[in-house]
Amino acid sequence: MPVRTSLVLLRPAADGPELTGKLELRYPSGEVYDTFLYNVVRVWEQPVEAVLACGLTVLPLAPVARVATADVPAVLLAISGRLERETTPEQAAALWGATRILMGLRYEEEQVDAIIEGVSAMLFGIRGIEESSVYQGILRRGEAKGRAEGRAEGAVEQAKAALLHLGRKKFGPPDERVQAELSALGDLERLNKLIDRILDVSSWDDLLGSL
After folding, report:
1. Among candidate residues 94, 75, 101, the one with its CA nearest the CA of residue 11
2. FRET label pair with 28: which of 14, 81, 85, 206, CA 20 to 30 Å apart?
3. How many angstroms separate the CA atoms of 206 and 194, rounded?
4. Angle CA(156)–CA(82)–CA(192) in degrees, nearest 5?
5. Domain check: are 135 and 59 in the same one?
6. Are residues 39 and 97 in the same domain?
7. What is the pLDDT of residue 160?
8. Between helices 89-103 and 133-145, what is the axis angle to 10°?
9. Count of domains in the chain?
10. Is this structure's pTM higher than 0.70?
11. What share of the chain in percent tops pLDDT 90?
């Protein structure tokens, strides 16, 4: 059977001029006796929206796809929404752990911790996520700092910011009515569902009509 081969590069340091998608095998004389073709997928060049729309096992690649550092919290919110709705507790913990590990390919450990802690309240909605060592570490730090309520409120504001950011990129600027409806939302679960639905609708009205 025909086989398609793809080489997936996770970071620019893995790239090189020799990765052309074509491998030629030659005799000592230099004559080509076989040619092997393959695809090269450079993850950092892939639009993050496309990665977020892929299967669950591809989601951990989203934070190292083509996305600005400032937008990573919004990406994590989108990932968590899908994990909450589409996975078992064991799958959610494994995929979230993989997401954190892959983030380490682009960011220093301290940066990863800061980004994840900044959106940690969203994790409380993922069934069984308490089994994840990453979640447990965040929870310990949160308890030590005594900021549980503050994190929850911050997560709602971050979800609103993420929704506005992703919505503007797909639908354009929201009008005053849309902004007022979004400002009135205070339920983190609803906000995460709206973030997830951005991929499936074509306008602000379609998105808010799903509430």
Report:
1. 101
2. 14
3. 10
4. 20
5. yes
6. no
7. 83
8. 80
9. 2
10. no
11. 33
